[in-house]
From TrEMBL:
GO terms for cellular component: plasma membrane. It is a multi-pass membrane protein. This is Tetraspanin. Pfam families: Tetraspanin (PF00335). Keywords: Membrane, Transmembrane, Transmembrane helix. It comes from Strongylocentrotus purpuratus (Purple sea urchin). The keyword Transmembrane helix applies. The keyword Ribosomal protein does not apply. The chain crosses the membrane at residues 12-35, 55-75, 82-106, 208-228. It is found in: Membrane. InterPro entries: Tetraspanin/Peripherin, Tetraspanin_animals, Tetraspanin_EC2_sf. Its main location: membrane.
Length: 243
């Protein structure tokens, strides 16, 4: 009996050490993405479900806390902590499955939302007083994703502020960026619109995150089984007293 408990105990400790490392990696990746996704969230302010970075940061913190509870509970063979860990692991697993389902449902609406948000969030406000953050976001987005406007470069000439004449764009639309190149109608500009570029970027991230969620979920099933086995063994040995 004691040998079985020890085996499960060390497996659970090892599992949570690895789970803690995974949580730290997810947290770090989320923080890195948060910096890179700044322009996306500035131009898409009412689409928080697309903010993969915040989700990863939250998930990383939760995994760090839960894995610490599980590891400490296993070391101390503490029934209450083991039961708490088991419940948290089940809840996190349910949340992962739910989040994955919601992501699948909402991904069909991404194209419509992206176009509406980009138009409302910005072409007419570009380079206007008090909109420095939005202007930088557009420039960063266009230069990074090699795109121009929402659908194409002509969107800039159709803005209400009249800042750009036909075939004129911000300098960040230029294939070879230089001061004033956007006003030069003969300079080479990016052809594709940023709507399609953003959707491709989001879909590629969603694919990676989806695979990661599946791997973590499968990994968690193993941890849930170990936690229950450890808790049951300790509980039986203690006569069912949760202390």
């Amino acid at each position: 009996m004691r040998g079985n408990i020890n085996c499960t105990k060390y497996m659970l400790i090892a599992f949570n050490v690895l789970f803690f490392v995974v949580g730290g990696a997810i947290l770090g990746a989320g923080a890195h993405l948060h910096i890179k996704e700044g322009p996306f969230m500035t131009l898409l302010p009412s689409m928080p479900f697309l903010n993969v970075a915040n989700v990863m940061i939250f998930a990383g913190i939760v995994i760090l806390v839960v894995s610490f509870i599980g590891g400490y509970g296993a070391i101390k063979e503490h029934q209450c902590l083991l039961l708490t860990y088991f419940v948290f692991m089940v809840l996190v697993f349910i949340l992962e499955v739910t989040a994955g389902g919601l992501g699948f449902v909402y991904r069909w609406q991404v194209a419509k939302y992206v176009a509406n948000e980009m138009r409302a969030g910005g072409l007419a406000k570009y380079n206007t007083p008090g909109e420095g953050g939005l202007t930088k976001a557009w420039d960063k987005l266009q230069s990074t994703l090699a795109c121009c406007g929402v659908f194409n470069d002509t969107d800039w000439a159709n803005t209400a502020n009249g800042m750009f004449l036909p075939r004129q764009t911000p300098d960040s639309c230029c294939l070879f960026a230089a001061p004033g190149c956007g006003k030069d109608v003969n300079s080479e500009k990016f052809i594709r619109g940023c709507k399609g570029a953003i959707i491709m970027e989001l879909e590629s991230k969603a694919h990676v995150v989806g695979i990661a969620c599946i791997i973590v979920a499968i990994f968690q099933i193993f941890g849930i089984g170990l936690a229950y086995t450890m808790w049951k063994s300790v509980s039986d040995r203690a006569g069912g007293n949760y202390v």
